[in-house]
Amino acid sequence: MASAATKTGNGALPAGFKSPFVRVEQEGSHDDLLAVAATLTNKTLAEVKKMAVTLGMRANGPFYFDEVLFRKVLFNLSPLACSPYQDFVSGAALPDVCVLCLDYDENAAARHVLFHRVRAPTPDGQSFSYVIDPAGWIDAKHQVTTDLRHLNMQPAWFLEITQRANPNGKSPSGKGK
Prior knowledge:
The chain is an alpha+beta fold. The protein has one domain (2-163). It contains three helices and seven strands, in the order αααβββββββ. The chain is globular and about 45 Å long.
C-alpha cells in the first residue's frame, strides 16, 4: 500500500494543502461508516444518523448500516454516488475517492476509512494519497495521514465515491427532467 502515497513529513499532509473533507469522529464502536458519511457530506454525525433513521435504520439499540443504506444517505445529503463494494487489488488501483473497508476478521467485523488521492498540481507539484480515519482510539497522527502503513489491507474492499451525473435532476439543456 505504500506505493499509493507520497511520503510527506511523517504522514503529514503537504504544506499548503487543505483537505476538502473535515474528519468526523465516530462516537461508538460500530458507527464508523456513519462517520465517514458525515465526513463526505460535510454534515454532523447527528444529521447523518437522523437521515439514516428516516431511511430505515433503527433509532435505538443495535443497528445495521450497510453500503445500501450508506448509498441512500449519500444520495439524500449530497450530490455523491457510491458503487457497490469492490475488491481491493492495490493502492495504485484505487479510485481518487473511496471508502476503504479494512481490518476484516473471521467474525465479519470490519471498519471503514476515507481514502483520497490528490493528483498534481499541489503546492509542491506532487501527487499523494491520504486517509481520514474516524476511529477515536487510534493515535492522532493516524487520523488524517499520508502514511498508510498502519492499515490492515488484507483482505479489504472499497466503495468508489463519485459525483452524481445529474445531481439537480435537470436535463443537460437545463429545462427540467
